């Protein structure tokens, strides 16, 4: 299994499982994969199965084909079996079942997907706000510790050799504190960016399905977009307000 390196604009698209350039995409799991990870991904069991295709072709599927007759496009929806079917299925296996128009079911499922996606987009706006806050916090942390270092440096210039040794120790301590604080905020920043990325992927999938008639893909996408409600829970921990008690935090530096 091999494919060309894929780019979007001037940037190389990376595999979601590692840092290698992407080659494939699983349309069921909504993940981008490099050559080695694609082989590993196919070995993982999934309720919806896997549909690994070339990354550049991941959005090409726009038809709804019958599961029992793969060459036949679906034209009816069986409410009894909760399944889109073709005209052959109607006469062979679903005679006594409750049937409905495929277009009506498509409209119903799309409405459900769109509503869930709209809610995700509203969460995205909140995430963006918190992402901006964490970015500003990183700037504040850097500025704060730079000022502290400057104060220590000015004092050190007037001290003798023994005091200069104390200055070095204080710098090391400030560096440790800075790294510790930045690590916390950087982690939250990455979590927010990942959440936004997932929501954007849901939005791209929803947009594509809105132009599609592939009910099978729509129905398989429902549980995937529904699972994204965990973002609502994650946001409570990922965007918590960080309180830094700068003044008086260390008696030696105040």
What does this structure look like?
The chain is mainly alpha-helical and 254 residues long. 56% of the residues lie in helices and 9% in strands. It starts with 6 loop residues before the first strand and ends in a 16-residue tail after the last helix. The chain has a three-stranded antiparallel sheet with strand order 4-3-5, with helices on one face. It is elongated. The N terminus is likely disordered. The protein is built from six helices and eight strands. Helix 3 packs antiparallel against helix 4 and helix 3 runs parallel beside helix 5. The protein folds into three domains: 51 residues, Double Stranded RNA Binding Domain; 37 residues, Double Stranded RNA Binding Domain; 136 residues, Helix Hairpins.
Give a short synopsis of this structure.
Helices cover 56% and strands 9% of the residues.
Order of helices and strands: EEEEHEEEHEHHHH
* Average pLDDT level: 81
Query: What is the count of helical runs?
Result: 6
- The rough form would be described as elongated
Which secondary-structure class do the elements indicate? mainly alpha
Question: Could you estimate the helical fraction of the residues in percent?
Answer: 55-70%
The largest sheet has its strands arranged as 4-3-5
